[in-house]
Design goal:
transmembrane, transmembrane helix, membrane, mainly alpha, 6 strands, DUF6601, 2 domains, two-stranded antiparallel sheet, 4-stranded mixed β-sheet
C-alpha cells in the first residue's frame, strides 16, 4: 500500500502535528566532527537496496512507499483483538532473559516478524538507523496538512499508521534494552548501531517513554510482546489463506511440525482410550459388572468409539494436509504467473 497525501478536515492539522512530533530530540548517530545536511543524514541511514512491492530489487529512497514498506504491520493490527491467543498483552522481556529463554536471537529485517518466536529462537529486527533520526520523524512521519485523521482515532491516514508502528517499535526496544547488560547484548548481536552509547540510550528511552498515553500512540500489535509463530501462522493463514502473498508459513511453518503436533495429540487420545479399554476389560471380568446391562452398553459404545475416533482424526489430519498442500502449490503457481508476466513486460519495455 502506497501512502498517499490525504485531503479534508483542516481543523485537525494542528492537533495532528502536535501528536506526531518526534518522541525524542537527542541525536544518537553520526560523528559530531562531520557536518552533514539533514538530507545527507537521512540518506546515509538507508540500506543498500531492498525488495519492493513487485518483489524486484530496488534502491531505497525517502518516499512514502518505502517508509510504509518497512513499517507496515497493518495485518497484525487487524488481528489485534485475537493476538492474545499468540502472546500476552505486555511489553517484551529484556534481552538478558531472551537469550536464556530462547535457543538463539534470529535477526530479521521484516517488522512483521519482530518478536515472533519458534523452536529455533526469537526473531528481532535490528534498530533501523532512520528511526534514530529526529528529523526523519518530523519530515516523513508527521501528518500532512488537511489529512483525514480524526481526533478519536477512528480514521487514520497512512502516515499516522506508520508513525504508530514506529512508536510501537521504539516501545518494544525500550523494553528489550532496559539494563546495561541488555545494552551490551544488543551491541554484541548488532541490534543497535555501533555509535550508540549507553548514556545516550538511557536519555533516548527516557524521552521516548515520557508520554502518559503511550498505548494510544503505538500500533495495537505492539501492545503485545512476544508472539508464538505456530499460532500466528494459523491465524494469518485463516485470515488470508488464498491471497498469494508472503505469509508466515515461509518462515515458521513446516509440514513436519504440523504432522508432529497433530499426531502427538492423536497419540495422547489413543493412550487415554487404551487405559479406559483396559479398565473396562478388567470390569467385564468381574462378576458384578459382567452381568450389568448398563456397563455392557457403555463398553460396547466406547469400543466402537475407540475404533472410529482415531481413524476419523487421522482422516481429518490428512484432509487438512491435502488442503494446505493444494493451496500452497496453487498460490505458488499463481505467484509464478504474476511474476513472469511482470518480468516479460519489463523485457518488452527495454
Amino acid at each position: 500500500m502506497v501512502i498517499q497525501a490525504q485531503s479534508a478536515r483542516t481543523s485537525n492539522s494542528a492537533h495532528n502535528e502536535a501528536i506526531l512530533a518526534a518522541p525524542f530530540n537527542i541525536r544518537l548517530l553520526g560523528d559530531p566532527t562531520v557536518v552533514l545536511t539533514i538530507d545527507e543524514q537521512l540518506l546515509s541511514a538507508l540500506p543498500a537496496c531492498y525488495m519492493n512491492q513487485s518483489d524486484d530489487l530496488d534502491v531505497p529512497e525517502l518516499s512514502d512507499a518505502y517508509i510504509w514498506r518497512i513499517l507496515d504491520v497493518d495485518r497484525l493490527d487487524q488481528l489485534a483483538r485475537w493476538l492474545w491467543m499468540a502472546g500476552r498483552p505486555r511489553p517484551p522481556l529484556p534481552l538478558h532473559i531472551q537469550v536464556s529463554a530462547n535457543p538463539e536471537i534470529l535477526l530479521t529485517e521484516r517488522i512483521q516478524k519482530h518478536l515472533v518466536w519458534n523452536h529455533r529462537g526469537i526473531f528481532i529486527k535490528p534498530m533501523p538507523r532512520l528511526l534514530l533520526e529526529p528529523h526523519f520523524w518530523d519530515r516523513h512521519l508527521s501528518c500532512l496538512k488537511d489529512c483525514l485523521c480524526s481526533d478519536d482515532g477512528t480514521e487514520q491516514c497512512d502516515r499516522r499508521k506508520a508513525y504508530r508502528s514506529a512508536r510501537g517499535f521504539l516501545f518494544s526496544y525500550a523494553a528489550l534494552v532496559r539494563f546495561e547488560g541488555d545494552f551490551l547484548i544488543a551491541k554484541d548481536k548488532n541490534l543497535l548501531p555501533s555509535e550508540v552509547t549507553w548514556g545516550a540510550w538511557r536519555e533516548f528511552v527516557r524521552q521516548t517513554l515520557a508520554s502518559e498515553s503511550i498505548y494510544e500512540e503505538i500500533s495495537p500489535r505492539f501492545v503485545f510482546g512476544e508472539l508464538d509463530t505456530r499460532i500466528l501462522t494459523r491465524m494469518l493463514n485463516a485470515w488470508s489463506s488464498w491471497s498469494g502473498q508472503i505469509r508466515y508459513e515461509r518462515y515458521g511453518f513446516r509440514y513436519g511440525s504440523f504432522f508432529r503436533d497433530s499426531f502427538s495429540v492423536l497419540a495422547t487420545i489413543t493412550v487415554f482410550i487404551a487405559i479406559v479399554l483396559t479398565a473396562m476389560q478388567v470390569g467385564l471380568a468381574t462378576t458384578l459388572l459382567s452381568d450389568n446391562a448398563t456397563f455392557q452398553s457403555v463398553s460396547y459404545g466406547f469400543t466402537v468409539f475407540s475404533l472410529v475416533a482415531p481413524l476419523t482424526v487421522a482422516a481429518v489430519v490428512f484432509y487438512l494436509y491435502s488442503m494446505m498442500l493444494f493451496f500452497t502449490w496453487a498460490g505458488r503457481y499463481r505467484y509464478k504467473s504474476i511474476r513472469l508476466r511482470a518480468i516479460h513486460k519489463t523485457l518488452e519495455k527495454s
